[in-house]
Specification:
The protein is of the alpha/beta class. Helix content is 53%, strand content 12%.
């Protein structure tokens, strides 16, 4: 919208609109009107009309109680800013030796004090500005904020010492005037403390001078508010603790501030994409940690660019295998995959000193393999029920400790008691004789070791927070448990190496896709 178009929408007569246009043209056609000597004419004629147009354009109003204004050698934009922003309680003028005269002129014109300085005419000012000037005596004007050194640190200090009891959202800083070093201090104070940041800008210039009537108040975004170092550090910390739900919530709030439009304006498209990748990964890992594999798989690919990069490069689409865990657990590969997932989640919990969860996950890894072993032995006809009835492993409950003893015992046959689940009131015990031909290979742990560690499970669950010594003992036990079960999984990998899906595979290469991304892995998003 041009200046003339903005004048036409004002609720004034055609005659008054003509006066607006003529005054602006008079300034532009007469270079003498732009000199310091013509300041009185500009204040009386230009300021009221420019303010009226500025008021009409200032639609995104920010109400502030305290306004800091950095005073430079150009008076008009500062007066326009004050009369349009209109702090309700306090105005602080930050000035240097070079701008002390301009500071006095601002005060004189606002207070309508007759003297050497010109006085702003109320004609054509906005109604709100007129009321403000009439009430200016109730606004505290601090004109003692003089700085001898115009360094950013001095301006920063002056602002911080004068904020009184105001909240951050009640404070504004106008950085239109002053030297660049002073502006830098005002910007720094604003961004760090999250104050409102103002700047009077112009749409057009004439002979390197701002064109009156084209002014607008630019409310600058606080880069820390869009996405700041504190948020980055918090997301990093939460990610290390694998609190993926909290990570998702923070990024959700950040994305509302760092919109697509703002990301483009500030050249933060890459950062925006990185946050999106982190959020998708967080949502995926949150469900993955809960073993909701199907939902995790859907979330992993829920974006405009398909799967997040780390998933494509490192996870090797492992979730597509885990989503069919009911069917997969009946195969050696599927059982080992499920065991590796539980083992890895146990390792993650152990790294966070969550010993109860670590012990549970590692125990589940054993259960996954043992459940498969039962099915495999049944299919091979190597499990016989003494009662002669059919054995359905899906309906059986068995002692995991007893099964471990059986699988790792030197004896080739061993009776195992299981319990048939019948309704809610318990069941009947049945005895089975199983023949064990599992290739044990060479193991660095013995049977008593894994039995003892399994016995720690309940102890860890109930007593892990007793004292520091208990914590250290549980850490030691969990590490031993973790290491032992790694060999137990390796035993199964070796025993079933003839299957196509396991041919030539080792523990490390099978386990690698289960490791979640670290926060640093998202820093090289293309």
């Amino acid at each position: 919208m041009t200046r003339e178009e903005r004048i036409n929408v004002l609720s004034i007569s055609e005659e008054e609109k003509e006066k607006f246009i003529n005054i602006f043209y008079e300034y532009e056609n007469d270079k003498d009107k732009r000199t310091l000597d013509s300041l009185g004419w500009r204040l009386k004629e230009l300021i009221p009309k420019s303010q009226r147009l500025l008021e009409n354009r200032y639609t995104s109003r920010k109400e502030v109680k305290c306004l800091f204004v950095i005073v430079g050698t150009t008076l008009e934009p500062l007066l326009l800013s004050i009369l349009t922003i209109r702090p309700t309680e306090k105005l602080v003028l930050i000035f240097s030796h070079e701008s002390e005269m301009q500071k006095k002129q601002i005060i004189n014109n606002l207070r309508q004090i007759h003297g050497s300085s010109p006085i702003i005419s109320k004609i054509f000012l906005s109604i709100e500005a007129i009321k403000y000037i009439e009430n200016i005596k109730n606004i505290k004007i601090d004109d003692n904020a003089k700085i001898e050194n115009t360094s950013p640190e001095k301006v920063f200090s002056v602002i911080n010492k004068r904020i009184d009891a105001y909240k951050s959202e009640e404070i504004g800083v106008d950085i239109t005037g002053g030297k660049k070093s002073m502006v830098g201090g005002g910007f720094l104070a604003t961004t760090v403390n999250n104050y409102h940041l103002f700047y009077v800008d112009f749409d057009e210039y004439i002979d390197d001078h701002p064109k009156p009537g084209t002014e607008f108040i630019h409310i600058l975004d606080n880069p820390y508010d869009i996405y700041n170092v504190q948020e980055e550090a918090l997301i990093n910390s939460l990610w290390e603790r694998q609190d993926f739900d909290a990570v998702n919530n923070i990024i959700e709030k950040t994305n509302k501030k760092l919109t697509e439009e703002k990301a483009k304006d500030y050249g933060l498209e890459k950062e925006k994409k990185r946050l999106m990748q982190i959020q998708i990964a967080a949502r995926c890992y949150s469900e993955w940690s809960k073993y909701n594999y199907s939902q995790a798989y859907d979330l992993a690919k829920k974006s405009n660019f398909g799967f997040f990069d780390y998933y494509k490069n490192r996870h090797q689409d492992i979730l597509s295998v885990l989503t069919n865990c009911i069917g997969q657990r009946k195969t050696a590969y599927g059982a080992i995959v499920l065991a590796l997932d539980r083992w890895t989640r146990g390792r993650d919990a152990l790294n966070r000193d969550e010993f109860d969860k670590a012990a549970l996950c590692i125990t589940q890894a054993i259960e996954c393999l043992c459940a498969f072993r039962i099915i495999d032995l049944i299919n091979k006809g190597e499990i016989l029920a003494s009662s002669g009835r059919n054995f359905d492993p899906q309906l059986e409950w068995f002692s995991i400790r007893g099964l471990i003893i059986f699988l790792l015992s030197d004896k080739t046959t061993r009776p195992i008691k299981t319990k048939k689940k019948i309704g809610k009131d318990g069941g009947i015990e049945q005895a089975f004789t199983w023949t064990n031909n599992l290739n044990k290979g060479i193991l660095s742990f013995n049977l008593n070791s894994i039995k003892e560690i399994l016995d720690y499970r309940n102890e860890i669950a109930h007593f892990e927070c007793i004292d520091a010594q208990t914590k250290e003992n549980n850490r030691k036990r969990c590490k031993e448990f973790h290491s032992t079960v790694k060999e137990f999984i390796s035993l199964f990998i070796t025993s079933y190496k003839n299957e196509d899906s396991l041919a030539g595979k080792c523990f490390d290469c099978l386990q690698a896709p289960f490791t979640f991304a670290e926060f640093k892995d998202f820093h090289n998003i293309s």
